[in-house]
Design goal:
OB fold (Dihydrolipoamide Acetyltransferase, E2P); five-stranded antiparallel beta sheet
């Protein structure tokens, strides 16, 4: 076995970690769900890389509203501003909730829920 074998194994290991991390990042941003949620609270949290908008809901848990290059979504401040506490919304989210990694689904679209239409008499 050559002296370069440990270096080669380390490079292969690093490459596998990079590929796995990239795959998880892509899958997280491609996973999309439609949810109907009632907003109970909104919060803007200071982070190392700027502000993070968080939305607390009754049915859907904690969500974030952030920009994402994967979706070419760069209007998170507008989406966040359009949400009103106590109101119900149809939300389009990406990603999953993974508490130990501090991951939250990301809201990329929000539309006020339309009131159920009255049933029509036959």
């Amino acid at each position: 076995m050559s002296d370069n074998a440990p270096i080669g194994c380390a490079l292969v290991g690093i490459a596998l970690v990079v590929v796995a991390a990239s795959g998880i990042g892509i899958a997280k941003n491609l996973h999309e769900e439609q949810r109907t949620c009632t907003i109970t609270e909104k919060e803007s949290v200071a982070r190392d890389k700027g502000q993070e908008y968080r939305v607390y809901t009754e049915e859907c848990g904690v969500l974030k509203v952030g920009d994402t290059i994967w979706r070419m979504h760069f209007d998170s401040a507008d989406v966040y501003a359009s949400l009103t506490e106590g109101e119900r919304y149809d939300l389009t989210t990406t990603g999953w909730r993974v508490p130990f990694l501090s991951w939250m689904p990301n809201v990329i679209e929000a539309e006020p829920t339309r009131a159920a239409s009255a049933t029509q008499a036959p």
